[in-house]
Amino acid sequence: MKEHPMVPPGGHRLPPLPYAYDALEPVISARTLKIHHDIHHKAYVDGLNQAEIKLVEARRQKNFDLVKHWEGELAFNGSGHILHSIYWTVMAPEGRGGSPGPLTTRCVDEYFGGIEAFKAQFTSAAAKVEGSGWTILTWQPTWRRLEILQAEKHQNLTQWSGIPVLVVDVWEHAYYLDYQSRRPEYLKAWWRLVDWREVERRLRLAVSSKVPLTR
């Protein structure tokens, strides 16, 4: 597998969308997608770059008086950038996302007892995120199985070593223009956009990772 070069401090870029702004309609409008990607995601990229540059300056000057602030900005904006980058890729125009692949099906069956049971838990978890945040299906290499996590404010409620496989954004900017406060309606419609081929690809990469087993 070809290794990607290190991203230098302050070198993050907003990834382009893998489809047109109107490609996810009617589930997500072109207006929502454009604002979400071009403004909100870009703000996380800019915030991440600024935090990394400030930390480079702190190391150079050996002055860490503001390290807590910039570490917090690093976690918040870095998590926002990563999760949004995954979010765009695990969606596809309606009717083009296929069905769960063989590895996804097997792993979901083993732990959740079936795809419908998994979707019910994932949807409920997303609907009940307090305030703003995400729901994430992760591969936990430590235990060699999947897990569903709520992530409030991006960086909270994580589980170390977990690798995101499928994510849904439940910050209000992801759905409010189209659904107002009706988050459950957004989530029900969102499943029509899931690109199961990308979920399968990400899961295969995650399963191949190796970490020490902890019980």
Strand order of the largest sheet: 2-1-3
Describe the global form: globular
Alpha plus pi helix count: 7
Give a count of the beta strands, DSSP E runs of length 2 or more.
3
How much is the radius of gyration in Å? Answer: 18 Å
In round numbers, the mean pLDDT is 94
In which range does the helix fraction lie? 40-55%
List strands and helices in order, with pairings.
Layout: H1 30-61, H2 67-89, H3 102-112, H4 115-127, E1 133-140, E2 145-152, E3 163-169, H5 176-179, H6 183-190, H7 196-207
Antiparallel strand pairs: 1-2, 1-3
Written overview of the protein:
It is globular and about 55 Å long. A hairpin with a 4-residue loop joins strand 1 and strand 2. It is mainly alpha-helical and 215 residues long. Helix content is 48%, strand content 11%. The relative contact order is 0.15. The chain starts with 29 loop residues before the first helix and ends in an 8-residue tail after the last helix. The longest helix has 32 residues. The protein has a 3-stranded antiparallel β-sheet, with helices on both faces. Helix 1 packs antiparallel against helix 2 and helix 4 packs antiparallel against helix 6.
